[in-house]
Amino acid sequence: MSTNNFIMNADCFNNYCYFSTDETPEDAQFDYECTADNAKFILNEKNKELSFFKMKIQGGYYDGLQAIIESNIEYLAAEDIANGNFSNEDSRYFWNLCRSIAIRKIKTEINKINRELARLKDYGFKEFIKTGQFSNGEGLYQYK
What we know:
Layout: E1 15-18, H1 32-47, E2 53-59, E3 65-71, H2 78-82, H3 88-95, H4 99-118, E4 126-133, E5 139-143
Antiparallel strand pairs: 1-3, 1-4, 2-3, 4-5
């Protein structure tokens, strides 16, 4: 894939997308709407158990679907939460936890999210990594 199609999640989260390719058989036309509904159902069920993050399905800029991980707190980015870039005061205010306990719970939640994202493979999603990016913003992606 070579496009600026997908947003990359924080480094600790796996990236999954649903994307048609030239190798896709003609009789296996992708039904994005059905796939999106199934994937949203899976992620919404798991979102009920999450405290720090939320998972959602979003369309690619040009084509396809992707799983996005966002923060439950508008004030903090998902990457900042995942890396522990918040103060003890923030931790007490948002989650009523001291920072060290919040960080342990966040690591546990990251593992849960990555396991849940792996379930998307059953719906045609594939894990991908960004292998490069040009100065115009176009990215090179490779299936893992």
